[in-house]
Amino acid sequence: MSAVAGKREQTKAANRTAILEAARRVFSEIGYGAATVRDIVRETDLATGTFYNYFPDKESVLHALLDEAAAEIRTRVREARKSSRSLQEFVEGGFRAYYAYLVEDPKTFQMLRRNAGTIRSMFDEPTVGAGVQELRDDLAAGIRSGLLPDHDVEYMAAAMVGAGFEVAVRMLDRDPPDVDAAVAFVTGIFLAGLSS
């Protein structure tokens, strides 16, 4: 790769990062619904036309931000579930990995907190849906191995994702967020439900 091509790639990466960081700030401060592409561009040193070289609209920026966060969350949660040796570790470890990430990443924390309704509406989209499918796969594997009781995988995944997200939103509203209390609460619910 030539020096010119290398510099061009660095500039492209820097521009994309600048747009994503600006969008994260704007979505956190005024909310996705109220935000415009112009609001995002104003937070950068870039021209409006440059924005459109990277993203067609603000929705695609939100998807990119959620893709980044979801990839990290899915990795952590899957590692926690795969290393579990009991039903309690499976449930508790997954929720703890998810909630801990949200608290450790204040930028994602603020964006999720401010835009929970918008993100909630995206559960069937690939950005969030990949994590749901991985949970289904992990639940099915846990049932096959005898680690988990035999229940309907679709219902279990839907309940765990829905409750997990809603408790995360409430946890993020508290100052300071209490990961341990949130994990204990959802773990207790699912242990009682899955054990019956």
In short:
This protein has 196 residues and is an all-alpha fold. The protein contains ten helices and no strands. 30% of the residues are buried.
CATH level 1 class label of the largest domain:
Mainly Alpha
> Using only CA atoms, what is the Rg?
19 Å
Query: Kindly state the mean pLDDT as a whole number?
Result: 90
Which CATH architecture of the largest domain would you pick?
A: Orthogonal Bundle
Number of helices: 10
Secondary-structure class: mainly alpha
Number of domains: 2
CATH superfamily of the largest domain: Tetracycline Repressor, domain 2
Order of helices and strands: HHHHHHHHHH
Strand-residue fraction? under 5%
> What kind of sheet is the major sheet?
none
Shape: elongated
CATH topology of the largest domain: Tetracycline Repressor, domain 2
Low-confidence stretches: none
Number of strands: 0
Report the helical percentage. Answer: over 70%
N-to-C CA distance: 61 Å
